[in-house]
């Protein structure tokens, strides 16, 4: 009977740390944040996305007018104007409506972030 108890004890020693490690794994992954909006400017390595604007205003309004309109159309001041670093900006076009996922967003104005994933969407 002693070997049986010993094997249960050893099994518990392996199972408990694995269970704790699995539960903690999600806390190691930073929160992924998402923004939907229109691309209003593109450089070689970045895209500039502004939310809560009309696509017809892109190219017609100044950046400040776009930002003012975006802020007027939402109470949520988070993620309304962000420059995203991307691997290749060549695959994007000004005026595209996209969803960008990121992990860390710098608190500058406009905000800056590294794009973790981008999905081209139909306009809302």
Characterization of this structure:
The structure is a single chain. With 124 residues, this protein is α+β, with helices and mostly antiparallel strands. It is 30% helix and 32% strand. Strands 1-2-3-5-4 form a 5-stranded mixed β-barrel. It is globular, with a radius of gyration of 23 Å. It starts with a helix and ends with a strand. Mean pLDDT is 80; it is low at 18-30.
Keywords:
about 120 residues, alpha+beta, 5 strands, about 30% strand
Give a quick rundown of the structure.
The chain is an alpha+beta fold.
Share of residues in strands: 25-35%
Question: Helical element count?
Answer: 2
Major sheet: arrangement of strands: 1-2-3-5-4
Annotation, overall tally of beta strands:
5
Topology at a glance:
Elements: H1 2-28, E1 33-42, E2 46-50, H2 63-72, E3 81-85, E4 97-106, E5 111-120
Parallel strand pairs: 3-5
Antiparallel strand pairs: 1-2, 1-4, 2-3, 4-5
């Amino acid at each position: 009977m002693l070997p049986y108890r010993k094997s249960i004890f050893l099994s518990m020693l392996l199972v408990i740390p694995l269970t704790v490690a699995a539960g903690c794994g999600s806390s190691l992954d930073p929160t992924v944040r998402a923004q939907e909006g229109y691309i209003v400017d593109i450089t070689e390595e970045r895209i500039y996305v502004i939310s809560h604007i009309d696509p017809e205003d892109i190219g017609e309004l100044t950046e400040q007018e776009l930002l003012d309109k975006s802020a007027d159309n939402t109470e949520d001041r988070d993620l309304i104007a962000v420059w995203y670093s991307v691997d290749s900006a060549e695959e994007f076009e000004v005026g595209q409506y996209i969803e960008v996922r990121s992990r860390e967003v710098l608190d500058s104005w406009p905000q800056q972030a590294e794009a973790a994933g981008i999905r081209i969407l139909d306009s809302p």
